[in-house]
Amino acid sequence: MKKILLTSFDTWLSEQQSNSSDDLLIELAKMTDIYDDLYFLRRLPVDVEVASCLVIAKINQLQPDYIICCGMAASYKNLSIEVIASSISVTPTDITSKIPLENSGEKILRTIVNVEQLVTGTKTVDISYDCGKFVCEGLYYSVLNHLSKSQLPIPCIFVHVPILHQENLIGILADFIVIMNNLVRGNRE
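^ thats the sequence. predicted structure below, dont judge the formating
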């Protein structure tokens, strides 16, 4: 069996009752007959440095075959798979500031996964080239950077998850399972 590491974030605003990325992993964990070797690192703190350290430590300890990092995108309607991550991200307290990208030393990393093939068979999954300049992008960049520097050819993707409710849960969960199955089948660039 192949080991899949799945991560999610905790809430970051006082009015949030949950984080949809964590809600999705909770639903996936209930489906124990899907995969035997799913490893969850749930409710990561909404802090790029701390979350990155926790995920990288888990990667080093677990040595997974695949990594799926998840984050909430409250304004989205569909799952969204991120193709790239930038070295420029902001913390939740800095979200209102504007960061000039020209001459900023921004570095961009791309997943080794062929995202177009990854979404084959899904109903409504978007492909994105803008991870959002928030903790999601910071974590994704840190993980991709760690894998690259450590020369670990582990396929890693970041999936943004919309708010889940009764009307969309089954479809989003089904699409997420298709994405996992396609990832395990090997969709690399």
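Strands lie at 4-9, 38-44, 66-72, 79-82, 84-86, 108-110, 125-128, 156-161.
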